[in-house]
Fold this protein.
Amino acid sequence: MALYDTTLRDGTQSEGVSFSTEDKLDIAKRLDQFGVDYIEGGWPGSNPKDVAFFEAASRMRFERAKLVAFGSTRKAGIAAEEDPNLRSLVGSKAPVVAIFGKSWDRHVRNALKIPLPENLELISDSVSFLKRSGVEVVYDAEHFFDGYKASPEYALDSLEAATHAGADWLVLCDTNGGTLPGDVRTAIDVVAKRFDLPLGIHAHNDADLAVANSLAAVEGGATMVQGTINGLGERCGNANLCSIMPTLALKMGREISVPDLTALTSLSNFISETANVVIDPKLPYVGRSAFAHKAGVHVNALMKDEKTYEHIDPRLVGNQRRVLMSELSGTASILAKMREFGIDTEKESGRRVLEHLKHMESEGYQFEGADASFELLVRRLNDGIRPPFRLEGFRIFVDVTGSNVSSEASIKVVDSTGMMEHTAANGNGPVNALDRAVRKALERFYPELREVRLADYKVRVIDSKDATGAKVRVLIRSTDGEASWTTVGVSTNVIEASLIALLDSMEYKLMKGPRASSR
């Protein structure tokens, strides 16, 4: 089974995604290390960035993957040898070239505006020229399934043109992303019987069926699956390889080139970070919520048999189980979470924590996204720990001078030995000033807190009917450069809520030592 990644080409067509040349080179290296078979690097004739990428990539040594240059068939009225696009594909020095041609008679008539037989000549001439140039040719039959539905014989004739010209692969594309899995399977069965060439599938996700369509094609005989990491792509995205790869290997028993699927979640996060796109926590297999359990009944069963509410062991794809704490939790959930924290457990302590949790959630707290605050809560109740510092008081000053608004925070903090630090700091706003003042004060006693910085800050209004007097929930995600953790604060005053979350973050870091664990 050949895995064909097009994150660097189709993935860059996602709204809000743009990779630099260096980004693309880093991603290509990571994909090669991960073990995909083909890496589609871009369209070398379309923009300077892709030209620079292929120039740099031609000097790279790929251990597993083949680099692919992507483009279209020749233009009408131009010989293949003279077509700038085809010449740039060969000039890219990529060992594999993927070209797309029209399979749908509607596109030939309305987009290309040429006679149907001439389109077949474009396909044949282009594939033939590329084969004479010594490259492996992947022929992408654009809009194949729409074309097959409208005019089956013409769609098949387009594949015939590519086959006779020497194409190495026939890839059937659901370009508009609206085909149903049953229709994919029907068309694949017909193509597989008529052609001896290996088949591939390229599915888009406009009907939320790209993964299902890809797997249906595999069941019908396709031996190449094209897609992107995290399902990046134009409109609703492409088939998500992060779902397809483990399904093929773990559920369908297909042999894939990836040597270690436990690196999958890490790869997903790497692509997300490089693309500067917040990863959907509900992505199957790799999402943060993929193995998160909230209902007490579920957790109770999981503790007895992990397969009761998990379709695979999350460790197989490098993910981990998470037990979420809320008013829906039962004692089993609390005890499971306490064991996760490494705390000795007994049913009575679990019930005590559960009752306290339900009370705090009635006040507006929510701990399912703030594990660090929840661990502090448990340890305060169960182990009797006390904060290593105490807040004596704080003040916030906001000055408005013309169009300029500035904020200053003054704070008093006492450490465990009774020493006081009274300091102040300026900031962009009151919360930023308070954050800087807290750090400035505490770093005198605890220099390791210099490593900590805010990675994310969210404010949620709990009950909007109270308007500006409503309680707010503040979630703060902190990091020390290696681990990250989330804390929560609740108050009718956004500054007080922020301060609660900030102090929890500092206390958690000090409790965990030189490197806090991710929570």
The longest strand covers residues 389-401.
